[in-house]
Design a protein that fits this description.
The protein is of the alpha/beta class. The chain has helices spanning 8-13, 69-76, 99-109, 125-135, 140-153, 169-181, 199-214, 226-229, and strands at 25-36, 43-54, 58-62, 84-89, 92-93, 110-113, 187-191, 218-223, 234-239, 242-248. 40% of the residues are buried. The structure holds adenosine-5'-diphosphate and magnesium ion.
Length: 260
């Protein structure tokens, strides 16, 4: 039997809490494994991941292509269930949920931002941002108010009636961020959010994530780009399905540009 290393992020906050869960923990992975296929063809994409993320933190998960980043994102976002191990989101073990319950958790708790934006082409920016609220059963006037507020927050108040093809890549990704925010999710989860963007749009997106972090949002961004990692408060590196380093750039819950 091995003795677990002390959890410095918990110690930082100085709260004893329950060993299982405390209000400062937003998510926790315990012994997570993900295997694709069986027998000879089995791919062990994640090989025992333990990770605790505090509320309000800004975490970057970094690693080279094929290291397991997207596999981890799919688990964190409740798009997939691990082959083994536990995932506690807001203290709830999501591996025990059925598909319907998982869909609800995704809608209420997770705001997704993808590399390829994943906007609906025939819908305006406003309609795209309202969509998760429709699934969440929010009434139309309130939907519109929240969606306009989110689009304003990403600097697109003057583009709400544009369809995605009338927007630049950077603007489309900002719409996607507005869509991720609009439900006030427990975590904003971004997989290579700047992977398809030029450097100016990358800077725009990173500064929006910084301001979300300053506003207290919990952000998990998955990336292989150092410039993205530099914006996060904490950087975890993954290689061959294992976490290989864990370093804090800034105190918990602070972002680049925040007052010390
Ligand atoms: P990353 O996002 O870091 O590039 P992935 O999580 O996509 O890495 O992939 C990790 C490993 O799992 C790779 O070896 C990849 O080929 C494999 N893999 C990912 N998805 C599948 C799948 N659906 N079926 C089989 N193998 C997969
Ligand atoms: Mg990937």
């Amino acid at each position: 039997m091995t003795i677990a290393a002390p959890d410095t992020h918990r110690a930082d906050r100085g709260d004893a809490g329950s060993p299982d869960y405390d209000a400062g923990t937003v998510l926790e992975l315990r012994g997570i494994r993900q295997t694709y296929g069986t027998g000879e063809a089995a791919v062990h994409a994640l090989q025992g991941i333990d990770l605790v993320v505090a509320r309000g933190d800004y975490l970057a998960i970094m690693g080279p292509s094929g290291s397991g980043k997207s596999t981890l994102m799919n688990l964190l976002g409740c798009l997939d269930i691990a082959s083994d191990g536990q995932y506690l989101l807001g203290g709830v073990d999501v591996s025990s949920l059925d598909d319907r319950q998982l869909a609800k958790v995704r809608n209420k708790q997770i705001g997704f931002v993808f590399q390829s934006f994943n906007l609906i082409p025939r819908m305006t920016a406003l309609a795209n941002v309202e969509l998760p609220l429709i699934y969440g059963g929010v009434k139309s006037a309130e939907r519109r108010r929240l969606a306009l507020e989110a689009l304003d927050m990403v600097g697109l108040a003057d583009r709400v009636d544009h369809r995605p093809q009338a927007l630049s890549g950077g603007q489309q990704q900002r719409v996607a961020i507005a869509r991720a925010l609009v439900t006030s999710p427990t975590i904003v989860l971004a997989d290579e959010p700047t992977g398809n963007l030029d450097s100016q749009s990358t800077d725009d997106v990173l500064s929006i994530l910084d301001s979300l972090s300053r506003a207290g949002r919990t952000i998990v961004v998955i990336t292989h780009e150092d410039t993205v990692g530099e914006h996060a408060a904490r950087v975890v590196s993954i290689r061959d399905g294992r976490l290989v380093s864990d370093r804090r750039n800034r105190p918990l819950g602070t972002a680049k540009g925040a007052a010390a």
